[in-house]
Design brief:
mainly alpha
């Protein structure tokens, strides 16, 4: 069965993606580079799209955590020792309404 997503305007979609980016950079930062102001802020942008889909499509906390672990694995890191509760809580605070 295909996932059902709410209709969200392009402008609101961009705003939500910016908020996800902030969570990725400020809360998650699995490789620990965002404390360096010279580091590009787009380090985790490749992972935003799927997270947007999970959030707007009603993904569970377990699905979100699974995706975060998958991302960390793609980065060549061991994410098994990290707690993602703060990241998930921060993502859940994003207002997804139009």
């Amino acid at each position: 069965m295909a996932a059902r997503y709410p209709v969200i305007s392009k402008e609101r979609s961009r705003e939500i993606r910016v908020e996800i980016r902030h969570v990725f950079n400020d809360v998650w930062d699995p490789i620990g580079v965002m404390s360096d102001p010279a580091w590009p802020r787009d380090e985790y942008d490749g992972y935003i799209g799927r997270m947007f889909e999970l959030l707007t499509g009603g993904g569970s906390d377990q699905e979100i955590e699974g995706y975060l672990l998958w991302c960390v694995g793609r980065m060549g890191m061991d994410g098994s020792r990290a707690s993602h509760r703060d990241v998930i809580d921060s993502l859940r605070k994003i207002d997804l309404k139009e």
